[in-house]
Each structure stands twice: as structure tokens, then as C-alpha cells.
């Protein structure tokens, strides 16, 4: 890393935050083999930078510099980059050696004309997009001193006809793999080690299934007549929380990661308690309860004590997701016009902030592993599709290349 001490650090939080104007050139491709992957890598790399919310990525069509400019500081006319408003400049190259795709990126401070940072990354040529995600992650870490979400995974439900199937994909929705095949499968959740949990009606009534990274799948044991839904993994992956319906009530339960030693946490007769979400330290749970007459967000300790109502505005609040940063819980609310939108509530102060408005229905928020972005569904383009935005509701962008199938209940793996 060059001149790291002088490099600017983007302060993401606070009223003074502004996206950094950044120019990123097309890759310098070395050799014929790398050309086959260049477009795919560049598409993923540019999406990462744009969707991050910390950069104002400049349009390449506005560039004034010589396209043949090299990657060394001495070959760059920095005044040309300043003329288009860039404060930082990223140049990167691609080469392939055997089955390995290699990339190098350099970040320059346009004002000083100095190289601030460089990184080299590689991945199998068959997984070309991983090189892009690794490059973007290194650049994000350089500017923020914290990890990006670009190397994480997401899960969601894809609805086709009468079937609802669980899929797992890279953070941008690419490299998607179907997990279930046919039937009704809902509410998937990713554990920290890649374990996948979901609700399935494959035996008639809803049950929770846990699929390990090696592919083994097992059903969480419940008593006859009980219906289990909505699994959530604790941050350390050692426990699960879920809802269990018996008769006319639904209660929150916790158990060990394999479903053993279940313990009931809530006990509201004829009440409905659902949608558990763990705090990042694993000591508390957010959940939805209608014990006050309408669905509202509550928090409680992980042993069921200390129940506290958190939302008081509106009469239909649901799908809470606790930020990995610990300060906020995102949730879906139905407003006075019967539209669904996304909000956050501060866990300590109770302050509610609206994130979406006047763009059809927006639901089912899930925070990125670093708490900086939120994944959600939106019907603004027709059927429900996946979008990401910053935790304050800015920079709302769709995940790339989605088809017309409805995509539901996403969860961002920690």
C-alpha cells in the first residue's frame, strides 16, 4: 500500500457525509484469454462501486483523458480527471494465467497526483465475478477501514406459478443457485457459517428445515400439531429462534442450532408473536407481537425477560431486522394509504426514520453484514424485485438482471 497515511478516509456516518466523486476506467486487458471475462468482471466491479453508497461513480462517457493512458502515476494527466470532477481515480488491469484470473487495481488522489493504494486479487477464471468483488472490497476497505458486503451471500424466495423455492446467490443476485425444487418454501435465513434455514410445507404443515453447507438437510423437531415458521440464526450460529403455532396462539422459541433443547420465550394467550431477529451480540431479540391490539415491533432479552415495545406509530408494523451495528432495527409498516414502506427505529431512543415512500410497496428489509446497506423487495417495477439502499434510505438501486418472477423475503447472510 502506498501513502496509506495520507489517504482520505470516508466517514460514512453523520450529517456531513457526501459520496466521494470517483472515476473508474475500463480494465486494461492483458492477453486474449482475459478478454473473455473482462465484460463480466467490469459489470460486477462497477455495480459494487455504485451500489456501495459511498462513491459518486462518474459516467465514463464524460471522461476527457486519453483512453490509452497507463496505470502508473507518471503516465496520467491528472488535470483531465480534475476537469470532470473526480477526486479519486481507479485504474485496474486483468490477466489470465492458466485457469487463474488475476487483477490489479490502483487508486490515485487526483488532487495530489499520487498513488494512494494498490491491490492485487485473483480467482478461478470460472468464477470471474469474484475477482471484481475482491477488488471492490479492497477499495471499500481502503476508504472506510471496514469490510464491504461484496463478498457476502443472500437468500430469497422465487415464486413461479404455485411454487415458491429458496435460492442462494452472491450479494448482487448473480451466481444464483436453487436450493428447493417445487412446493411452498418460505422465509429463508442464512447462518454465519453458510447454514441455510427455511420454512417448508413439503409435509403439509409448515416445518423448519436446516441445510448445512455440505448439503445435509434436517427438519427441526416439533410436537404433533405445532407449526414452526421463520427461523433466525444467532450471530454465533449456535442458536436458532423461530415461531411455533399451537391452537390459537403463536409464540417465540429458541433452541440450539440443531433444534435441540427448545425453550419457549413468549407466552401471550391467544396472541401472535413472530419474526424473531437477533441483536448483534446475541443477547436480545426483536420480534412482532399483536399483544397490544395490532402488530408492533418489540424487543426482549434472549431468555424472554425484559419485553419492551419499540414501535408506537401506525397499526401494522412487521418483519424487523436488527442491524449488525446494533443501533437500528429496520421494519415494514403499512401507512395510512395501505402502502407498505420501510422504516428504521433506533433501539435506544425509539426514533423512527422513514426510508421509502411513493414508490409502490417496499417490504422485508435485511441489513448487510456491515450494517451499511439494506436489501429489500419492491414492486416499483411491477412484480416484487430485489433492491439495495443505504441504511438511511439513499441510493436505491435494483440488483442486476432480474427476470419477471416475484422475489420475496430476502435475507442477507452475516
Descriptive key words:
414 residues, mainly beta, 4-stranded antiparallel beta sheet, 43% strand, globular, disordered N terminus
Structure description:
The protein has 414 residues and is mainly beta. It has three helices and 30 strands. The chain has helices at 32-51, 78-83, 128-144, and strands spanning 20-24, 28-30, 55-57, 88-97, 100-109, 114-124, 153-160, 163-170, 177-178, 185-190, 196-203, 205-211, 217-219, 227-233, 239-246, 249-256, 263-264, 273-278, 284-289, 296-301, 308-309, 317-322, 328-334, 340-346, 352-354, 362-367, 373-378, 385-390, 397-398, 406-412. The strands form seven sheets. Strands 1, 2, 3, 4, 5 and 6 form a six-stranded mixed β-sheet that branches. A four-stranded antiparallel β-sheet has the order 9-8-7-30, with no helix packed on it. A four-stranded antiparallel β-sheet has the order 10-11-12-13, with no helix packed on it. A hairpin with a 5-residue loop joins strand 18 and strand 19. Helix 1 packs across helix 3 (128-144). 43% of the residues are buried.
Amino acid at each position: 500500500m502506498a501513502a496509506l497515511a495520507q489517504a482520505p478516509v470516508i466517514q460514512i456516518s453523520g450529517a456531513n457525509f457526501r459520496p466521494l466523486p470517483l472515476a473508474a476506467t475500463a480494465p486494461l486487458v492483458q492477453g486474449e484469454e482475459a478478454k473473455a471475462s473482462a465484460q463480466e468482471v467490469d459489470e460486477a466491479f462497477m455495480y459494487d462501486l455504485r451500489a456501495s453508497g459511498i462513491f459518486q461513480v462518474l459516467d465514463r462517457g464524460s471522461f476527457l483523458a486519453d483512453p490509452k493512458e497507463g496505470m502508473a502515476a507518471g503516465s496520467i494527466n491528472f488535470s483531465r480527471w480534475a476537469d470532470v470532477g473526480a477526486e479519486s481515480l481507479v485504474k485496474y488491469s486483468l490477466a489470465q494465467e492458466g485457469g487463474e484470473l488475476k487483477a490489479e487495481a490502483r487508486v490515485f488522489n487526483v488532487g495530489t497526483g499520487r498513488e494512494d493504494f494498490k491491490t492485487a486479487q485473483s480467482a478461478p477464471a470460472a468464477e470471474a465475478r469474484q475477482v471484481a468483488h475482491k477488488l471492490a472490497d479492497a477499495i471499500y476497505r481502503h476508504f472506510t477501514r471496514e469490510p464491504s458486503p461484496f463478498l457476502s451471500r443472500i437468500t430469497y424466495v422465487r415464486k413461479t406459478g404455485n411454487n415458491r423455492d429458496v435460492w442462494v446467490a452472491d450479494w448482487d443476485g448473480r451466481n444464483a443457485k436453487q436450493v428447493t425444487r417445487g412446493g411452498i418454501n418460505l422465509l429463508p435465513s442464512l447462518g454465519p457459517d453458510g447454514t441455510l434455514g427455511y420454512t417448508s410445507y413439503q409435509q403439509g404443515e409448515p416445518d423448519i428445515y436446516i441445510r448445512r453447507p455440505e448439503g445435509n438437510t434436517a427438519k427441526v423437531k416439533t410436537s404433533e400439531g405445532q407449526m414452526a415458521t421463520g427461523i433466525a440464526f444467532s450471530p454465533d450460529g449456535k442458536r436458532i429462534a423461530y415461531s411455533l403455532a399451537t391452537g390459537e396462539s403463536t409464540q417465540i422459541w429458541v433452541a440450539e442450532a440443531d433444534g435441540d433443547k427448545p425453550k419457549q420465550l413468549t407466552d401471550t394467550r391467544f396472541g401472535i408473536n413472530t419474526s424473531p431477529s437477533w441483536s448483534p451480540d446475541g443477547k436480545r431479540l426483536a420480534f412482532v407481537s399483536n399483544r397490544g391490539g395490532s402488530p408492533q415491533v418489540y424487543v426482549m432479552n434472549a431468555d424472554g425477560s425484559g419485553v419492551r415495545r419499540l414501535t408506537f406509530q401506525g397499526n401494522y408494523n412487521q418483519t424487523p431486522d436488527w442491524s449488525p451495528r446494533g443501533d437500528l432495527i429496520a421494519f415494514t409498516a403499512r401507512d395510512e394509504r395501505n402502502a407498505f414502506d420501510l422504516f428504521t427505529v433506533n433501539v435506544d431512543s425509539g426514533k423512527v426514520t422513514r426510508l421509502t415512500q411513493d414508490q409502490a410497496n417496499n417490504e422485508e428489509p435485511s441489513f448487510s453484514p456491515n450494517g451499511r446497506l439494506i436489501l429489500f423487495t419492491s414492486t416499483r417495477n411491477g412484480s416484487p424485485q430485489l433492491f439495495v439502499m443505504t441504511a438511511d434510505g439513499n441510493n436505491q438501486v435494483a440488483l442486476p438482471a432480474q427476470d419477471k418472477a416475484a422475489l420475496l423475503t430476502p435475507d442477507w447472510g452475516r
